[in-house]
Amino acid sequence: MKDRIKKVQQKLKEENLDAFVITTLSNVRYLSGYSGSNGILVITPKSSVFLTDFRYKDQSKKEVKGSKIFLGSRDLFDDLPKLKELKGKKIKLGFESKNLNCNNYLRVKSILPDVLLIPTEDLVESILIQKEPQEIEKIKKATAITDQVFSQILGFIQPGITEIDLAAEIEYMIRKQGADGVAFDTIVASGKRSALPHGKASKKKIKQNEPVTLDFGAIVDGYVSDMTRTVMVGKASKKFKKIYKTVLSSQQKAIKFAKPKLKCFELDKMARDVIKKAGFGKYFGHGLGHGIGLLVHDYPQVNAKSRELLKQGMAITIEPGIYIPNWGGVRIEDDILITRSGCEVLTHSPKNLIEI
User: What would the pLDDT profile of 58-98 be if each residue is shown by its tens digit?
Assistant: First the structure.
């Protein structure tokens, strides 16, 4: 944690900031190790202070590394004026402009009247975007769980089972495999509902000769996996086979060319062009992927607008899809790690068309 804090402290010098208040819990965890639900981190060029309340006294003693611990009230913003690091006139205090809401901004401004509040963007994110070896290992453990669960859940997919029951089985299996929990609400969308990119599992019963899209992930020590597969219950039609082949070809092309120094929008275009050429361009309406880490939608964004350069150590998803209203859809998603010269696919579940 100390090395991460040092990187932030270097950023403060570059930004000419006297202090930086971090309120995004995932960033607090990244920099301190704290996994609770109430915590703030204040970093100066020479120190780091972690604030929490009495409920997390023992937990913070066990988890927090590299920062001194300040136990305050349940409303941590009220304790900011008590910190010696924030005393003095015209202190330039950076804050996370994307995450500090207007109400809390006005509160901080009121309780720290002598402080100059300076908005920052992606100060911590610019550091955590490239994963360290120990982070990569945790993501790999999470992807191994999703692979194991996928192999097991295939035996449960049959006509008559409801989407919500199938989702419950997946989430149970994820925990049985040793995960801390699920990375997000499990998506199970069958038949025409598979055209919903984020189709929440419903009470709909799965029927013969219809697709089922499964999108799920595990959490291991805070780090997530995120995988999607679409299978066919029964026999796939020619149209479904064509669409499936198109999505798979799109994904395989992106994986083949993903490497450092490639801009995210360029990778998105490579995959999108395959789908456009097949005549389904208007049915692929979301970005190609996103970063994963302590968040399931982490940095960078991999879409048509992102000019972020891929860098070694980034963990991202590659998830093209085709979604046709009132018909159905297909999405295939893997987690990959950008390496020195290309990428490593972290999810290993089969991607050939499975007919159950």
Answer: 999 999 999 999 999 999 999 999 999 999 888 999 999 99
CATH number of domain containing 32: 3.40.350.10
The C-alpha R_g of the chain, in whole angstroms, comes to: 23
Single-letter amino acid, residue 273: D
Residue environment code for 10-37, b if the CB has 16+ CB neighbours within 10 A, otherwise e: ebbeeeebbbbbbbbbbbbbbbbbbbbe
Give strand pairing partners of 182. Answer: 218
**CA-CA distance, 356 to 234, in Å (whole number)?**
6
Q: Could you say which of 100, 128, 156 is where a domain stops?
A: 128
Structural domain contains residue 273: yes
Q: ω into residue 300 within 30 of 0, thus cis? A: yes
User: Is the same domain home to 121 and 145?
Assistant: no
Same domain flag for 110 and 152: no
Return the SS3 of 334.
strand
How far CA 263 is from CA of 62, 110, 207, 250, 316, in Å, comes to 40, 42, 42, 17, 13
As a whole number of angstroms, the distance between CA 36 and CA 56 comes to 7
The residue segments making up the domain with residue 205 are: 133-345
pTM, entire model = 0.96
